[in-house]
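Translate sequence into structure tokens.
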Amino acid sequence: ILLIMSDDMGFSDLGCYGGEIETPNLDGLAGNGLRFTEFYGTGRCWPSRATLMSGRYGDRLTSNQVTIAELLKTAGYQTSMAGKWHLSKTATENGPFQRGFDSYYGAIVGGGSYWRPPGLTRNTQAVEPDSEDYYYTEKIGDEAVKQIHGFAKSAKPFFQYVAFTAPH
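Result follows.
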């Protein structure tokens, strides 16, 4: 299962939903997969993220909500995430590791820079951008690909959540 989320993108921005922007790679994924047609976001991104992760409408992800990653782990899935979490203030309290993800790379907090994102984390440890030409959007994609290559070494099914901050 590959779940891709993009911040601040309208319903009809992608070609597969009738948009005028050419998005051939995403259109190909959508044509061979599942597309949400009745998932409604809010004016703030974290309630939508909490709803997507838990299946329950609310303004945050609470300890009594089970995430899709936690549920899939019990079914034998490998799980990983790359990108914006924005569901906790730290990586060690209600972060991706505590909520069912085996590996994580991204920014724990909400908004920030594409070149020096605050709260940048690998698993539960703070990290810094690793090159002079670091660009967060590209790094999220690169990390997601690395995680998927890791999944390919096993016969177990996987769940990959990729949460881009662009097109903010």
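Note: The chain has a mean pLDDT of 90.
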